[in-house]
Amino acid sequence: MRSKQRCGVPVGRLVYGLGSFVADFDDRALAHIKAITLSKLRRNESFAFTCEIPVAAGSGHVCLWMNAAIPIQFEFVGSKEPTLNRAWLEELVQLSNSPTGLRVTPEPDPVRSVMHSPKPTDEKLPGERVGAQRVGAGRLNH
């Protein structure tokens, strides 16, 4: 794959089927699409995915039925996987479970992600009590 950029942002590709559908996405959006897609297909959950067709290619949109039986490739330009934005993932998961299916939306402001970075010792996660133990930690069997 040759290196592409759009406005200075690395552009990767989603290839669905046997090359019958190819769409360009910036690597950051593609990483989020990949996370949602692989998570759902791993559980054998098919879903609709709608992609916008750029003006240069004729405008409009295409809706794909994402299914584990159909080959899919995620081709990234950058050498490092982008850090995932938990808020965006949650939004995209909700869309993927809706009747209209997954579509790429603008990225919301990030919330601190624990997916790729350990939690600082002095900071608590949302809903976590200070000094709380993990479930099952220190449990005695009587």
Backbone CA Rg: 19 Å
Largest sheet, described in full? 4 strands, antiparallel
What is the oligomer described by this structure?
single chain
Terminal CA distance reads 61 Å
Q: Please mark out the parts with pLDDT under 50 across 5 or more consecutive residues, or reply none.
A: 116-142
The proportion of residues in beta strands is 15-25%
Number of E-type strands: 7
> How would you describe the shape?
globular
Task: Give the helix proportion (percent range).
Answer: 10-25%
**Overall mean confidence score, pLDDT:** 79
Look at the helices and sheets and give the structural class: alpha+beta
The total of helices stands at 2
Protein name: DUF7882 domain-containing protein
InterPro entries: DUF7882
Region (Disordered): 99-142
Domain DUF7882: 12-107
